[in-house]
Amino acid sequence: MRYMVFVNMREDVGGPPQPLVAAMSEWMHEGFASGVLVDTGGLYATADSIEYVVRGGQVTTTDGPFAEAKEVVGGYAVVEVRDDDEAGELGRRMAALHLDHWPGWEGAIQVRRIAGPDEGPPPRD
Questions:
Q1: pLDDT, tens only, 14-47
Q2: CB 23 within 8 A of CB 100
Q3: Which of 20, 28, 73, 82 would be a feasible disulfide site paired with 101, CB 3.0-4.6 Å?
Q4: Nearest partner of 74 among 35, 54, 52, 102, judged by Cα
């Protein structure tokens, strides 16, 4: 099963410190070598992005930065694991790396299952 792991954080904290970069690099090498990690990356700032909004039957375009954004997705990982528990443990480890190697960092690690081509997300109530 595949999961996407999002790193949500305030955008104004800047780039990660070198100790976190080194720890994440080690984590990524291990993940790619074991086959658990499928893809990963950090994302550029919202100042370098475009947002397309569908509202009221129209598509509007806004160039970043987006003043209303308090937290943004700063990075992601796609992992392939056996079950929810293994995905959750990878998310917990990623959170612990941030806690241990980025003093003062506050944010959230979100783990979400990716629907396969022959399935969709469960219906909403």
A1: 889 999 999 999 999 999 999 999 999 999 888 8
A2: yes
A3: 20
A4: 102
Asked if residue 90 lies in contact with residue 57, where contact means CB atoms within 8 angstroms, the answer is no
Distance from C-alpha of 90 to C-alpha of 111, rounded to nearest angstrom = 9
Contacts of 114 (CB under 8 A, 6+ apart): 1, 2, 3, 4, 78
Greatest CA separation for the chain:
47
User: Is-contact 46 11, C-beta < 8 A?
Assistant: yes
What are the chain's domains?
A: 2-113 (3.30.70.1060)
pTM, two decimal places = 0.84
**SS (HEC) of the chain:** CEEEEEEEEEHHHCCCCHHHHHHHHHHHHHHHHHCCEEEEEECCCHHHCEEEEEECCEEEEEECCCCCCCEEEEEEEEEECCCHHHHHHHHHHHHHHHHHHCCCCCEEEEEEECCCCCCCCCCCC
